[in-house]
Amino acid sequence: MKYLVMSLLIAGSLFSAEIKPDKIMVYKHTEQTDLTMHIFNPEEHKSGDKTPCIVFFFGGGWVSGSPSHFYQQAEYLSSRGMTAMCADYRTKNKYETSPKECVRDGKSAIRWVRANADALGVDPNMIAAGGGSAGGHVASATAALDGFNEKTDNLEVSCRPNALVLFNPVFDNGPNGYGYERVKDYWRGFSPLHNIHKDMPQATVFLGTKDDLIPVSTAETFKTKMNKLGNRCDLHTYKGCEHGFFNKKKFYVTLLEADKFLTSLGYLEGKPTLKK
């Protein structure tokens, strides 16, 4: 039987046994490499099912990172009945690419899942995007941005997810935001905070009050803009927590809140099964 064994150390960080996806599939061919999707399915899942799905994007400042960044969250959510995926995408250190490619790959990833929903056994109308830090930027960019589409993508397939689960996400790429010097030539069309629209998906956001990269005020502005357009945006702040806290001492509480959010949307059923 598929299960997840977790325990919290005295220091508050999470330890888990080695986790491996059920399958890894290529979702995109690029000049540099084939990009893969790391897939965690619920028990007895099969092609033709209509399970809700979440696609996670790792953090790393558009410079580095690995799909395994969200393996623990994916394993848990698959145990709760969702199909959970962790997407690889191009980064500067590995492929000498720019932040543009990160967003292009993110959009391609969502389109691939939606276009192949029947074979993957997922509901094309219940696809969430999640991510942390720059991965949170990629996830929110798939929902907010009109541009930065791959030329080889079928643009008739929507890249917009139906929900967002964001951990200390990069929202603001403006002059006072994150990464401006790297994206200053195109920041206005690249910054999710500056491209919020009325058709944004419902979102939940997790942020530490001592995050030195993402000020709480930025997330509050994102929430305010979302709410003014009639879009749900739940904001959870954690006192004294720094950047990347969600995979450390607050893993349990943030994943529990993500579970509650996804349950409220009908993506999960029943009570959370995450154990301390």
TrEMBL record:
Residues 38-151 form the BD-FAE-like domain. It is an enzyme of class 3 (hydrolase). The keyword Cell membrane does not apply. Keywords: Hydrolase. Residues 204-251 form the Dienelactone hydrolase domain. Pfam families: BD-FAE, DLH. Its EC number is 3.1.1.72. It comes from the Bacteria. InterPro entries: AB_hydrolase_fold, BD-FAE-like_dom, Dienelactn_hydro, GDXG_lipolytic_enzyme. SUPFAM superfamilies: alpha/beta-Hydrolases. GO terms for molecular function: acetylxylan esterase activity; triacylglycerol lipase activity. Belongs to the 'GDXG' lipolytic enzyme family. This is Acetylxylan esterase.
